[in-house]
């Protein structure tokens, strides 16, 4: 009887130890890197990170990236060799904590920038995660392409007299919030910024917006006949392919 009890005790202890080893909390660092720019963090509201079990769809963890956009020189202006890091302890990221009992194939998504609905895109990848094998350092880096474009003028559903000049103005920034300026790291002269003005009964036309003295601000003036108009302002970088768009509607009396 004692022998049976001892065997049973050993078996239970084995199961307990095995279970505690298998169900280890596993850390995965996830970062969102704006294409041709820096990391998406606290200054623009962060990127929403969602990690799912790729087979079942179960959400294993989610949260927002937080921290700084990182070191401009390190990210953009320093030649990289194998294993060189792009980040430091202050660089924006989200450290996910996964409670997994076996090697798990996961989907990692970054929705960014989370607070700019017209600019938000989803970047994703897949990978295996092993219980207890943390993924740290730069971690999983998801590239987020595009520009954030905000139309500043005219305002949505604004009524403007046909006799008045129409002011077109937009704010253009990188997806990390980095500014666009003439001759800057993100050179305004490199980007094409245009307004497409359309109405149901009129032919569409394009107007070029030029950079102003204020960082990230592009502007132009025009005039319109009476009607209901949709104004689409876009930014395009012919070098990287980065593109951003915003739209508004106005009434010309």
What is the topology?
Elements: H1 2-22, E1 25-34, E2 48-53, E3 59-64, H2 72-76, E4 94-99, E5 104-112, E6 121-129, E7 135-144, E8 147-153, E9 159-160, E10 166-174, E11 192-199, E12 202-208, E13 210-211, E14 217-222, E15 227-236, E16 243-252
Parallel strand pairs: 1-7, 9-16
Antiparallel strand pairs: 1-4, 2-3, 2-5, 5-6, 8-10, 10-14, 11-12, 11-15, 13-14, 15-16
Would you mind describing this structure in some detail?
This protein has 253 residues and is mainly beta. It folds into two domains: 20-144, Immunoglobulin-like (Sandwich), CATH 2.60.40; 147-252, Immunoglobulins (Immunoglobulin-like, Sandwich). Helix content is 10%, strand content 46%. The chain is built from two helices and 16 strands. The strands form four sheets. The protein has a five-stranded mixed β-sheet with strand order 9-16-15-11-12, with no helix packed on it. Strands 3-2-5-6 form a four-stranded antiparallel β-sheet, with no helix packed on it. Mean pLDDT is 93; it is low at 13-20.
